[in-house]
Amino acid sequence: MSPVPVVDLLETVKAEVNRLGFKTLGLLGTRVVMESRFYGVLDGVEVVPPTTELLEVHDAYVAMASSGVATEEHCQVFVRAGRAMVKEHGCEAIMLAGTDLALVFNKKFDPGFRFLDCAEVHAAAIVQSAIRP
Length: 133
Hints:
Strand content: 5-15%
CATH topology: Rossmann fold
């Protein structure tokens, strides 16, 4: 059995962002990820963290990840922050920079803005890499 290949998350997300043609993206995740601009390596793309909601997003993310449950309050925090980034900064979509955000954002949920689940993009690239001969 072959080992699972190593696939760089940032390179994979970068390729998908380029494919989709995004130039301005919002970012939801933990405080460290949002403040460090971890995803700032995306060439030619402005990555915008939440402004006034940054700590509220972090706290909601940590509480959700710790419990494994996304409450209505958590959902409201993430959606409010996402909509603010779209409205105030012209973000074309919001990057979900944490696996636990899938508890809120899924194909059945429409938050009123486009979003890109970085974990989903990464997982799909790993699968594709693993099945290639």
